[in-house]
Automatic annotation (TrEMBL):
This is Alkylated DNA repair protein (DNA oxidative demethylase). Substrate binds at W56, Y61, R62, Y63, D116, R142. One of its GO terms (cellular component) is cytoplasm. It comes from the Bacteria. It comes from Kutzneria buriramensis. Fe cation binds at H112, D114, H168.
Length: 199
């Protein structure tokens, strides 16, 4: 379903097997060094979401090849870039950044734009575990109009064209809605694939 020009939601895109494989991979990626942590904000606060980055490390508001403590960022495996190419239906799409977000039952993400990439290539989003309420806004400001969409385990979202720089966020997760058979007993995982536009 196209919820806005360039914003395409494909429910149930990942097979149960692919979801299990991704959960297992996320467990490896979450391990130190360069593992999962609450991103520290310039304000002094920390994000409620926990994140591990592959390819390039994101801190507000730039990408680098090393984490805060100087550890090298984990590589983005070819099989994950291939999955991204399949998601957008273009073998030439080669993401070199993956951000893996983990939401516990209290985590949310405020309305923001993703502008730190130097590319307007699409962003691919994959969701696993508990469902969430995803808020898709407009390109002007973080306020209305927006559309709330429930994202469930296995769902794919591609944000390209005019939707690439739209404000978006996660207002809440819906605890207990995930299937433990994915290997995730609780919480929500979101994997976004992006093109950095950097060498
Ligand atoms: C629309 N993640 O990591 S995924 C993020 O569920 C982020 O963890 C949310 O927003 C999550 O930056 C939302 C959907 C998403 C991701 C990136 C986008 C929508 C987007 C970039 C541009 C436009
Ligand atoms: Fe985002």
């Amino acid at each position: 379903a196209e919820i806005a020009p360039g914003a395409v939601h494909t429910p149930d895109w990942l097979s149960p097997d692919e979801q299990r494989r991704l959960v297992a991979a996320c467990r490896d990626w979450a391990a130190a060094p360069a593992g999962m942590r609450h991103t520290r904000l310039p304000s002094g606060g920390v994000m409620s979401v926990q994140t591990v980055c592959l390819g390039w490390h994101w801190t507000p508001y730039r990408y680098s090849r090393t984490t805060e403590d100087g550890s090298p960022v984990k590589p983005l495996p070819d099989w994950l870039a291939d999955l991204g190419a399949r998601a957008v239906g273009d073998p030439a799409y080669r993401p070199d950044i993956a951000l893996v977000n983990f939401y516990d039952q209290a985590a949310k993400m405020g309305m923001h734009q993703d502008k730190d990439e130097r590319s307007d290539a699409p962003v691919v989003s994959l969701s696993i575990g508990d469902s969430c309420v995803f808020r898709f806004g407009n390109t002007e400001h973080r306020n209305r109009p927006w559309t709330d969409v429930e994202l469930r385990s296995g769902d794919l979202f591609v944000f390209g064209g005019p939707s690439r720089f739209a404000y978006h966020g996660v207002t809440k997760t819906l605890p207990g809605t995930g299937d433990p058979a994915t290997g995730l007993a609780a919480g929500r995982l979101n994997i976004t694939l992006r093109v950095s536009g950097m060498d």
